[in-house]
């Protein structure tokens, strides 16, 4: 059990600011403390320090290593990569806390040691008024806290999307397994590319998360096999790797390419978007000056349920910007094709588009 305590100094001055945003800071800090404190206490304190109000949240949880403390307020950082005391690290709301506090003219910091808990503190400029504030509405605060920390399944368990997680690092597999299970997904695990292909053919997942550097068969080779299997080619693949080779991944047809260290907030957002896209048929842009070819491809693709648009080669950039298709089928003209693809993907904000070049 975890006990929530408050220690608020009497007759604190008024603070002028956005109450909703400041409540959000407290909710983020308390929910972070709850997540990483399996037993003990969480203490919220407020006191006056000269012209500043100092608010702190202290927990008796796992603590944070000194080397990791400068990173906790950076965007998209998950501190800790082992599962000895799952969960490790810090919540993803801390960068938001910093932005809100600094916007109000304050600062935020952490004091912590592994195994000894953490204290997150922030300051706010106090106004000249000394009128005391009313008592903290703990019931309201805890109600909002529960809304943030309680995870609800996206659908019933038997109909929940199945995620295939492929990584040779058992810690990463277990981390993602727990994160997705807690979010209500079904999860299948594989330790290498060959095992991933076998599991995918057996269970046909709704989405695959794939590492690159693995023994027996690496992630790029596995993605190539999966994207050329008629029964699996429409399953979204998210590459999650330390290897920086997005262009190769997108050439193979992967849907997203994310780099480690794992940012669970971004990963969950991308997974959600891909699964949502899968509920409706993808949009294909056919680019060819030969109208008979365009008509043939359009008929075939629409028969398979795709939404189809078309463009001439000269109109490719404008149409791609306007339609933002999922797939571009492009006739090769044998000249500047690689430059065209690179410009579309990296300069026009279409890096997640799958390109199919034909002759």
Percent strand equals: 15-25%
Helix share bin: 25-40%
Q: How many separate structural domains?
A: 3
Low-confidence runs: 76-90, 129-156
Give the overall shape, derived from the CA principal axes.
elongated
- The strand count comes to 14
Question: What report would you give on this structure?
Answer:
- There is one protein chain.
- With 359 residues, the protein is α/β, with parallel strands linked by helices.
- It has a 5-stranded mixed sheet with strand order 1-2-3-5-4. The protein has a 5-stranded parallel sheet with strand order 7-6-8-9-10, with helices on both faces. A 4-stranded parallel sheet has the order 12-11-13-14, sandwiched between helices.
- The protein folds into 3 domains: 2-149, Histidine kinase-like ATPase, C-terminal domain (Heat Shock Protein 90, 2-Layer Sandwich); 157-277, Response regulator (Rossmann fold, 3-Layer(aba) Sandwich); 283-358, Response regulator (Rossmann fold), CATH 3.40.50.2300.
- It has 11 helices and 14 strands.
- It has helices spanning 19-35, 94-103, 138-149, 170-182, 193-203, 219-227, 246-252, 264-277, 291-303, 316-323, 337-347, and strands at 2-8, 40-49, 52-59, 108-112, 118-125, 162-166, 186-190, 207-210, 237-241, 256-259, 283-287, 307-311, 327-331, 354-358.
């Amino acid at each position: 059990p975890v006990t929530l305590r408050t220690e608020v100094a009497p007759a604190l001055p008024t603070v002028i600011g956005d109450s909703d945003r400041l409540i959000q800071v407290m909710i983020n800090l308390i929910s972070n403390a709850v997540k990483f404190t399996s037993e003990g206490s969480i203490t919220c304190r407020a006191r006056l320090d000269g012209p500043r109000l100092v608010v702190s949240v202290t927990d008796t949880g796992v603590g944070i290593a000194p080397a990791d403390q400068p990173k906790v307020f950076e965007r998209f950082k998950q501190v800790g990569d082992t599962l000895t005391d799952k969960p490790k690290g810090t919540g993803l709301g801390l960068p938001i806390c910093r932005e809100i506090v600094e916007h109000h003219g304050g600062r935020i910091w952490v004091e912590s040691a592994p195994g000894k808990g953490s204290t997150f503190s922030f300051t706010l400029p106090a106004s000249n008024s000394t009128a005391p504030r009313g008592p903290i509405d703990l019931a309201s605060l805890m109600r909002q806290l529960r809304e943030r920390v309680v995870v609800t399944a996206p659908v019933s368990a038997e109909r929940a999307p199945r995620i295939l997680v492929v990584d040779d690092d058992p810690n990463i597999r277990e981390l993602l397994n727990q994160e997705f299970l807690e979010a209500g997904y079904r999860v299948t695990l594989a330790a290498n590319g060959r095992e991933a292909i076998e599991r995918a053919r057996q269970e046909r997942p709704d989405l695959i998360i794939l590492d690159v550097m693995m023994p027996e068969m690496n992630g790029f080779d596995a993605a190539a096999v999966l994207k050329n299997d008629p029964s699996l080619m429409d399953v979204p693949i998210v590459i999650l790797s330390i290897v920086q080779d997005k262009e190769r991944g997108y050439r193979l047809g992967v849907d997203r390419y994310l780099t480690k260290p794992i940012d669970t907030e971004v990963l969950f957002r991308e997974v959600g978007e891909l699964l949502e896209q899968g509920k409706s048929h993808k949009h294909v842009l056919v680019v060819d000056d030969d109208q008979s070819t365009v008509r043939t491809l359009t008929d075939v693709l629409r028969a398979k349920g795709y939404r189809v648009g078309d463009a001439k080669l000269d109109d490719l950039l404008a149409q791609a910007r306007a339609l933002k298709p999922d797939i571009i089928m492009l006739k090769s003209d044998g000249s500047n094709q690689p430059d065209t693809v690179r410009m579309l993907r990296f300069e026009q904000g279409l890096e997640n588009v799958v390109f199919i070049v034909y002759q």
